[in-house]
Amino acid sequence: MTLILVVGDMHIPQRAADIPGKFRKLLVPGKIDQILCTGNLTDRATYEYLRNITPQVHVARGEYDERTFPISVRLEEQELTVGLVNGHLMVPGGDVDTLAATARLMDVDVLVTGNTHRFEAYEEQGRFFINPGSITGAYSPLEMQSIPSFVLMEVKLRHVVAYVYQLVNDEVVVDRIEYKKE
To answer: What is the pTM assigned to this prediction?
Structure first.
């Protein structure tokens, strides 16, 4: 089993001061195998914080990131292929058909995307789509009251169990979603 932290749209310090303390307490080194970040890290200190959790950090460049990150990342994880993009180049953003077309183009089973600052996870056309939202709750033009959220994905062969963590009324709420590649 592989444990993957999925985060994104942090916008520190431009739109948010930091990752909420209740989330930081959960994200400790030595438990997570790798991190997928949908971009908009925007500062070096946050990147180093993620690398302290695990050295395997994959970042897709967001519109506010330096050009050192790739626009997209494609990974093989056990018996699944995972695609990672920010989503700021997709029109219309967050659209189910646009995301499905991107997953087909990347030839991936799981597509991780961001940019909307809103958590979503669903299966469509035999593929699994995850948007972790914004771990800081940073606002966006589309989502002025973003709920801070991130996802922990357990990957075992062709099976994904995604745990979404959301900070609602200063309490951490956890939900579980499953996907199995046929």
So the answer is: 0.94
